[in-house]
Design brief:
three-stranded antiparallel sheet, six-stranded antiparallel sheet, 246 residues, FlgF, elongated, 26% helix
Amino acid sequence: MQNALFVGVSSQMAIQRELDVIANNMANVSTTGFKARNSRFQEYLMPVASADSFESPDRRVSYVIDQGTTLDLGQGPIEQTGNPLHVAVRGEAFLTVQTPAGVRYTRNGALEVNVQGQLVTSDGHAVQGEGGPITINPQETGAAIGPDGTVSTNLGVRGRIRLVTFAKPQRLTSEGGNLYASPDQPQPAGLAGRLESGALERSNVRPVVEMTRLMDVNRTYAMVSSVITRLDDLRGTAIRRLAEVA
């Protein structure tokens, strides 16, 4: 009976983690370039006794272990905006940006020019070119971004946006603000990543799918809670009856 309670608790902890992931996905349905995450769990079988004196072998007790989340790198829908500084990232590439915490990576292609003339994201993070930050003077006109990330104005090429990919993108960790950090060194994207100017990649979260998952998880949580309650009541009844016999 005690094992059954432990199994129920491990299931509830896993379900709570799943709820947190779904809630975060739903909160970012409208976030530019957001990539959904999915929970990943593993079954853990408790070691069993090996003595040969038992009349029947022990039953294997199965627990649930949270193995983190996986990043869904599927392409989000592309929305045309007409803004020449907006870029939708196609493929599995990421923009490189400079943040107060260091170099980070993002799919947020809502770019603009700040008061210092630097090309930045909508959150104010400086977009990194192959030679450092990209600067556009206020007097320049006709700003455009090519598919390979080349930024040009009426005065010529101002730089090329640094697009990168990762050999193991699932090792990327979310840091909030639609930013990712990686323990691995990035690689030049090459043909693995292209930019579409005048457009933005929207979130790849599918609200209908997430709502369905949410309903399933809530039903499962309620079912597990009910089982735990019945087991607890059964244990209490057993203790009372044993006390009456004594």
